[in-house]
Amino acid sequence: MPKILIIEDEAAIRRVLVKILSEENDTYELEEAEDGLVGIEKIKKEDYDLVLCDIKMPKMDGVEVLEATKLLKPEIPMVMISGHGDLDTAVQTMRLGAFDYISKPPDLNRLLNTVRNALDRKELVVQNKILKTKISKNYQMIGESPAIADIKDIIEKVAPTEARVLITGANGTGKELVAHWLHQKSERAGGPMIEVNCAAIPSELIESELFGHVKGAFTSANKDRAGKFEAANGGTIFLDEIGDMSLSAQAKVLRALQENRVQRVGSDKDIKVDVRVIAATNKDLKKEIEEGRFREDLYHRLAVILIQVPALNDRRDDIPLLVEYFSNKIANEQGTANKAFSEDALALLKSYDWSGNIRELRNVVERLIILSGATVEENDVKLYATK
Fold it and tell me: Residue 128 — very low, low, confident or very high, per pLDDT cuts 50/70/90?
């Protein structure tokens, strides 16, 4: 249930805002504060999904409330309420981090659209924080082989820059992991990391997913919706399996990269975005270009830095380290004791052909841990690895 705080010294305006929002959505939990000081005390004690705040108020004005809130709880979107003479100040609040501003008297559609978009943004921020927590626990680059050492060295050099990166490699090699490391080691690490699996989204929906849509843009578009590029503003967007993207969507991505602007489906309004793009593919994009399935100009925009992730067969010396990492992780997940792998078992695993790469190795390690005795021996690998 979205929780919204209205900070406004004019009781009549507060009543109007409460009436509009309660009629729009009876699940909104609405609270009021008659001035900035009361509002800040409420913000300190409660977690709000959105704050609507007047600019001109006694005791503590809206700009001061905005600055204090950004220090206390920067994740809360703030929508400023401006009188006719406050427009210059309202624009200034946008530079200070306000989500948007609305003018008095509040226009019904403008208010409702702004509230919906701000709540959507808050939800995306929360989801991204959860994702970041998972990433910090689950994404580690394991390996000491020359190939992995080279990738780590490239990441250290490239991550602090704004250069776009194209990651190539077969399925299961860890392209997603490289993308997350690039983001975590970049200046944008404090911003969102938004992932889009281009192969998993139907071609007719990919543009809406990336750029958002306005209400009525198509049959099921019953409200305005922000796209992934907007959600990634100030951070990184990871376009996985970009080789599967339609030519129409490629053209719009190219425009976004050239102009740092997007348009929601069904709208002609430009929305400025500040996003670093990292892309990945398991396809040969140069061959796709020759066959007319991928835009050459987009390829050159994306491939400022190329990172080729090696197959597991090309980094066999990392297998013992990967087995140890996966066995520890699986034991923690299942709440069981960790199992050691004998030297002979590891040697046999190193000799296998890993067509499914690291993803396949992880599955085999889990199978061996479940089916083997106290220690995983060579015979267990022969029985259960199913090679």
Answer: low
Total residues belonging to the chain: 387
Share of the chain above pLDDT 70, in %: 95
The phi, psi pair for 3, rounded to 5°, reads -110, 120
From residue 377, give the alpha-carbon distance in Å to each of 237, 241, 278, 348, 369: 43, 38, 41, 10, 11
Q: Which residues pair with 195 in a beta bridge?
A: 238
Distance CA 160, CA 245 (A): 28
Regarding the domain delimited by 313-384, which CATH topology (the fold level of the hierarchy) does it fall under?
Helicase, Ruva Protein; domain 3 (1.10.8)
Angle, helices 62-72 vs 87-95, to 10°: value is 10
Q: What is the DSSP letter of 141?
A: -
- What's the pLDDT score for residue 280? 98
The CA distance from 217 to 271, in Å, is 17
274 has a pLDDT exceeding 90: yes
Angle, helix 108-138 to helix 175-184, in steps of 10 degrees: 110
Q: Could you tell me the CATH superfamily of domain 3-120?
A: Response regulator (3.40.50.2300)
Give 163's DSSP letter: -
The distance of Cα 65 from the centroid of its chain, to the nearest Å, equals 28
Rounded Cα distance, 56 and 260, in Å: 34
Scan for tokens 């305006």, then name that residue. Answer: 13
pLDDT value at residue 283: 96
Residue 134 and residue 183 in contact, taking contact as beta carbons nearer than 8 Å: no
The residue extents of the domains of the chain are 3-120, 139-310, 313-384
Superfamily of the domain at 139-310: P-loop containing nucleotide triphosphate hydrolases (3.40.50.300)
Residue 96 has pLDDT above 90, yes or no: no
Query: Residue 126: what pLDDT?
Result: 66
Dump pLDDT digits (tens) for 25-78: 888 999 999 999 999 999 999 999 999 999 989 889 999 999 999 989 988 999
DSSP-based three-state secondary structure for 111: helix
Residues facing 54 on adjacent strands:
81
Residue 237 or 58, more confident: 237
Nearest to 295 by CA among 240, 245, 256, 238: 245
Q: What is the pLDDT of residue 89?
A: 82
